[in-house]
What we know:
This protein is α/β, with parallel strands linked by helices. It contains 11 helices and 14 strands. It has 2 domains: 26-154 and 263-304, Periplasmic binding protein-like II (D-Maltodextrin-Binding Protein, domain 2); 158-258, Periplasmic binding protein-like II (D-Maltodextrin-Binding Protein, domain 2, 3-Layer(aba) Sandwich). Helix 2 runs antiparallel to helix 10 (272-282) and helix 3 (95-107) packs across helix 10.
Amino acid sequence: MRKNKILAFCLSALMVAGLAGCGSSSSAASTSSSSAASTADSSAASAAEAPDGDGDPTTLTVAMECAYAPYNWTQTTDENGAVQIRDSSDYAYGYDVMMAKKIAEALGQDVQIVKLDWDSLVPAVMSGDVDCVIAGQSITSERAEQVDFSDPYYYASIVTLTKKDSPYASATSVADLEGAVCTSQLGTIWYDNCLPQIPNADILPAQETAPAMLVALNSGACDVVVTDRPTAQAALIAYPDFTLLDFGGGDGDFQVSEEDINIGISMKKGNTALKDAINEVLSTMTVDDYNTMMDEAISVQPLSE
């Protein structure tokens, strides 16, 4: 269905506004390598017929925040294969860019990255300015009323961050967070669904970005924040005083639905050609493939250096 902000300042440059996804799942489709090649070929043909945001059928135009490490971030060079951002001298990289490149290559297209604020992502798809959004979006029924989603392209569990010296650092369940002052990012299941499950929680106003959420925790404005595992892992690099709490997904964990936590690629309603093409590419990948890519993204994000 997230992240980090000198470190805090750097983090803002990396990820500014985050997404809202997190997810946990035990399965993902996979296919044999022999079928993958023919799949990619048929996908390319389908994609060529799909409406393209900039009118160029040779280009897959992908929107993201470019500010949500390790899913996506902004950097000044093309190091590691980063892609230049449309109408900018900067480049985007991260898990989402890696995935966009993989899909575009299979479809025989180039990638164009468009940097947008979180709230502008869905409207950009609906208007046709971009072909799709790859930005850590949870596949929720509310969003699905406005856009179509691919199959999940990542599964990330929900976790809690607090400081190592916090009275909540030894918490082993949501119940153990009782009375905590907490916050999370605006427009996410973390804030809307998870925080209200903390008994007697003192819920602060939502933070506009994931970096702002992390700064709130670091400054002592709150006791805990709720996010997804990749965002939390990235945050631990920037904030070594943080500790990650994982409640294991059972009865003592935050209770969320599959639609809340599986992360998908969104596109314009009715663009079945593109949806089918993307799903065919995703079907050649496994959960291990996703995790390997995410580990790589975490290892090369700017704050890991």
